Amino acid sequence: MRQIKAKLISILTQNLTNGSLGIKKTPGVCGGDACVGNTRIPVWSLVGYRRLGCSDAELFKCYPHLTAADLVNAWAYADAYPDEIEQAIIEND
Fold it and tell me: For residues 69 and 31, is the Cβ–Cβ distance under 8 A?
């Protein structure tokens, strides 16, 4: 069931961004962690800020170049791959 959910979220993420600015993993960029679009903003860091109580509005203030679609993609990715995100948070804490 988790694999099906992950696949559906992956498709949704690609559709939201026309496949060009979704979540990307690039070797050598942020340790290969999943990042938002063509940025160096790891999904795990956004999740970490959210856990500290930051709202989406506060994240937009900190990262003014992010779009609503970027955050939707980040939250969808985090929901689809919770173990990966949790491990990245632990490793980068």
Answer: no
pTM as predicted: 0.77
Nearest one of 59, 49, 36, 37 to 89, comparing CA atoms = 49
Integer angstrom CA distances of residue 29 from 17, 24, 38, 51: 20, 10, 10, 24
Hey, which CATH number is domain 2-12+32-92, 3.40.1080.10, 1.10.10.410, 1.10.3720.10, 1.10.10.10?
A: 1.10.10.10
Instruction: For residue 76, count CB atoms less than 10 angstroms from its CB and return exposed for 0-12, middle for 13-18, buried for 19 or more.
Output: buried
User: What would the pLDDT profile of 13-34 be if each residue is shown by its tens digit?
Assistant: 555 544 445 899 999 999 999 9
84: helix, strand or coil:
helix
